[in-house]
Amino acid sequence: MTHFDVVINGAGMAGAVLALGLAALRRPDGSSLSIAVIEAAPPDFDAHPGFDARSIALAWHSRELLEQLGLWARLAPLATPITHIQVSDRGHFGRVEMTASEYRVPALGYVVELTPVGQGLYRQMAERPNIRLLCPARIKEFVQQPDNIVLTLDDGAAFSAALLVAADGNRSLVRRQLRLPCRQLDYGQCAVIANVESAEPHRGRAFERFTPEGPIALLPMSQGRSSLVWCASHERAKALMALDDAAFLAALQREFGYRLGRLVRTGERHRYPLVLDEVERPWHHRLVLVGNAAHLLHPIAGQGFNLGLRDVAALAAALRQALADGRDIGSHGVLSGYGRARQPDQAAIVGLTTALALLFSSDHPALAAGRNLGLTAMAACPSFKSQLAWRAMGKR
Ligand SMILES: Cc1cc2nc3c(=O)[nH]c(=O)nc-3n(C[C@H](O)[C@H](O)[C@H](O)COP(=O)(O)OP(=O)(O)OC[C@H]3O[C@@H](n4cnc5c(N)ncnc54)[C@H](O)[C@@H]3O)c2cc1C
User: Fold this and answer.
1) What is the pLDDT at residue 341?
2) Distance in Å, CA 283 to ligand 1 centroid
3) What is the pTM of this model?
4) pLDDT of residue 359
5) Residue of the CA atom closest to atom 4 of ligand 1
6) Residues of the chain with CATH 3.30.9.10
7) Residue 40 above 60 pLDDT?
8) Closest Cα to residue 224, out of 263, 198, 259, 250?
9) Ligand 1 near 81 CB (within 6 A)
10) Which of 126, 202, 237, 359 is the most exposed place for a label (fewest CB within 10 A)?
11) Is the dihedral of CA 21, 167, 339, 5 positive or negative?
């Protein structure tokens, strides 16, 4: 039976980045890890669940992590820098502005479109001789034995691995088979996304605007367009999806205002239901969960993949250390050390996004007044504001 050092189930952002990060590791004798990546979806980027029409914001710190993993150089040409962030609340005066120059960084973050990023990551995986991409393929069953995991695929192929990483997203098969306890919260909202063209160029400006209709984010992206994420109740989101383009742009203009001038065109709209879904303990015998398989977040502060990337980078660092020390990379000590070290960051980000989602989606006058005071205080108090800015850049 073929043996792999690591099998990664799922090749979305988290799984693909992890595979490439691990492929670069070396044992003290110079040998590399053998890695299998199992992906259910065919490599068709017109309809890939992990690399769809979404654009996501990568924090400044995520750029640093991607550099350490050796992946930034090929991503950089696909990334639009965010040089200015404005946070505001519709109908109130409170407002916070942050610029990259204030914090002496070239950008507060970057926006990337998932489809071209996915194409690039798949090309890179194909170039690595120690990555075997099995796609489309699915695990039929896996058995955790003391010294390895034995996996059987739907087509009957069987192999073993020292470590299985579940990067198979929020409906993780690995997680379901193990019946891992989860914390779930339905936000009662959907995110409507679209790429929008405006009369004024974005000039690197990102906007987060809280409105009675729900939070609206417009992020600078390629070809002068802005990537919209509009979180709204299910009914409102359904109604937004049903509008024709002109009526949709008019509704958006009403809520967002003229910060980008007139909104002139919108691309196709897509809708995502928003829930929090978090595994209580994302590690198990010879197995860890990363990315959305471990925690699905509200997109309000653009934290989902940034958190997943910190998981991936920390796991790669833990395995690098285990190889250097001659330890078994799937051992309980290595995996629980990794898992425990990640828990405070995961808990903080789940708490932050949930608090923001609840606070900024409410139209209750007391909460609206509190928000407004908060934004005003932040604008007036440099240390509050810089905490927010460093958080936006992914530093804690
Ligand atoms: C509207 C919206 C806006 C967002 N904005 C941001 C942002 O600005 N910044 C940010 O950091 N994050 C953002 N996110 C979150 C970010 O998109 C996700 O965190 C990230 O894409 C998740 O990647 P993943 O690889 O963990 O999971 P997924 O993308 O779910 O990938 C899982 C992969 O596993 C595969 N798979 C599933 N089941 C199986 C199986 N049984 N066998 C094999 N393969 C399987 C799937 O086909 C898929 O390729 C946003 C999310 C949404 C919805």
Assistant:
1) 96
2) 19
3) 0.94
4) 75
5) 299
6) 76-113+185-274+362-392
7) yes
8) 198
9) no
10) 126
11) negative
Regarding the beta carbon of 41 and ligand 1, being less than 6 Å apart is answered: yes
Amino acid in the structure at residue 380: A
- What is the best residue among 219, 292, 315 to mutate for testing ligand 1's pocket, by most ligand atoms within 8 Å of CB? 292
Strands, E, within the chain: which ranges?
2-9, 35-38, 55-59, 80-82, 84-89, 95-99, 109-113, 131-134, 139-144, 149-153, 158-166, 182-198, 205-210, 216-220, 226-233, 263-266, 270-279, 283-284, 287-289, 295-296
CATH 3.50.50.60 residue ranges for the chain: 2-56+116-183+275-355
The closest-lying atom of ligand 1 relative to the alpha carbon of residue 15 is 25
CATH 3.30.9.10 assigned to domain 76-113+185-274+362-392? The reply is yes
The HSE-up count of residue 372 (CA atoms within 13 Å, CB side) is: 13
Q: Provide the 3-class DSSP secondary structure of residue 253.
A: helix
CATH 1.10.760.10 fits 2-56+116-183+275-355, yes or no: no
User: What is the pLDDT confidence band of residue 96, given thresholds at 50, 70 and 90?
Assistant: confident
- Of 72 and 383, more confident: 72
Ligand 1 centroid–CA 304 distance in Å is: 8
Reduce the DSSP state of residue 244 to 3 states and report it: coil
User: Would you call 335 helix, strand, or coil by DSSP?
Assistant: helix
pLDDT at 378 over 60: no
389 pLDDT more than 70: no
Q: Output the CA 13–ligand 1 centroid distance in Å.
A: 6
* CA dist., res. 318 & res. 314, Å (int): 6
Q: How far apart are the first and last CA of the chain?
A: 45
Which residue is it, tokens 């610029």? 99
Spatial distance between the Cα atoms of 91 and 145, rounded to a whole number of angstroms: 60
Distance, in Å, from the CA atom of 6 to the CA atom of 16, rounded to the nearest integer, reads: 13
CA angle 37, 278, 59 (to 5 degrees): 70
Q: Is 50 in the pocket of ligand 1 (CB under 6 A)?
A: yes
86 is written with which tokens? 């404005």
Residue 189: CB atoms within 10 A of its CB come to 23
- 346-355: per-residue pLDDT in tens? 999 998 888 8
CA distance 214 to 178: 36
